[in-house]
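Note to self: keep these together.
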Amino acid sequence: MLKPIFAIVALTAAFPATAQTAPAAPLPSDAATHDWRDIPDTEIMVITLRDGRQVFIRLAAQFAPGHVSNIRKLTEARWWDGTSIYRVQENWVTQWGGDEKTPPPEILARPPAEFEIGAFQPAQRLSKADGYSSASGVTADGWPIATDGKAAWLTHCYGMVGVARDSLPDTGNGSELFTPIGQSARRLDRNYTVVGRIVEGMQFMSALPRSSATMGVYATPAERTAIASVRLASQLPEDDRPRFQYRAADNERYAAWIRLREQPAAPTVATGLEVCDLPVGVRRKQ
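Structure:
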């Protein structure tokens, strides 16, 4: 069943830098070698499109265990093979999965909504609130989080991966996923379960032809982008596994980088920093 994302957001465009400017402020020292830490193979999902292009997703198992468990079972069953990217809505989302395919019986049909993640415990906290929360920051392992002073949640930044659903909160089982392709989709925070983040290959999701049909769903199957396979890195032969590392945020080097972004040197004017402005902080293992 098609599970569309119902909210709509208006996003601003980024302006390119002018050619004639004063020298940029010096950047803080790059991450130390020990700041880079391995991501387990069981937390990397590899989507291979029909033309061989690949998209790599880091799963947020600690924040959405029920949905990620379903996603792993779907992957292990090779259920996504032969499905497609069936929706690309301008300045909103790209969505994929088996919208007309029955999920296997071993997955939980209606897992409880996992919109919130418990306590707000950032390794680094931004100095100002934004329009969507009273505070925000990043966890020690680099996930963007926010709070209203009571609950905490993962934020729907560009490239984050959410679970599509129907109107009821417990109607998304993880078989249909989406990623914001605008600047962010923060209006979805606490309304949709976040299960991961695209760490490589986002350009293949954001550069697809937009659909002019209702809600960006392609009008014909021929317009869709076929998915050849979806695998966990742990399912691949040892020599073929993609190896990724995340940059730890629980150190002064990361804190210094945030301070520089919040208070850039002249002539750049400090206009604020939103949690979705922070980079992914993931790289291929050296």
